[in-house]
Amino acid sequence: MSRALTPLTIRRPFARYSHAVEVPADHRLVFASGQLGIDANDTVPEGVEAQARLCFQNVGAILADAGMGFENIVRINAFVTGREHLPGYMRVRDEFAGTPPPASTLMIVSGFAREEFVVEIEVIAAKAAL
Predict the structure, then answer these.
(1) What is the per-residue pLDDT across 59-114, written as a single tens digit (0 to 9) for each?
(2) Quick check: 21 and 5 in contact, CB under 8 A?
(3) What is the C-alpha to C-alpha distance for residues 12 and 34, in angstroms, rounded to an integer?
(4) Sorted alphabetically, which SUPFAM superfamilies does this protein's record hold (predicted)?
């Protein structure tokens, strides 16, 4: 079982995430590429929440292929194109993040491959070896 690390000697996390997550040696790891808010038919919804939800759904499909679920995520790296997208992204992230929450980094970037994208999410997941 992975273990969240949040030392009492440093500031508590700003939101619902862990400062670190320890993964035992007997676990399989999945490193997912950044997922964008686009569906299999090339449709990109408007708004950060709709795109973030689709990003996480895409992540869920990747994890399912590995025999994992959202509870196996140990790290999230997310990127948004402006500060105004932070609250919406975090609301959606909190819907999908397990307990304890994974380690997480959120960065503001100037843009993505296509102008309509406002969020990209990549994850690392871990599960005990079969």
Answers:
(1) 999 999 999 999 999 999 999 999 999 999 999 999 999 888 999 999 999 999 99
(2) yes
(3) 27
(4) YjgF-like
The answer to whether 112 touches 81, Cβ cutoff 8 Å, is yes
Evaluate if pTM is beyond 0.70: yes
Strands 103-108 and 73-80: parallel
Name the phi and psi angles at 77, rounded to 5: -115, 125
Q: C-alpha 10: how far from its chain's center?
A: 23
Segment 109-128, tens digit of pLDDT:
999 999 999 999 999 999 99
Q: 76 with 120: CB under 8 angstroms?
A: no
- Cis amide prior to 100 (ω within 30 degrees): yes
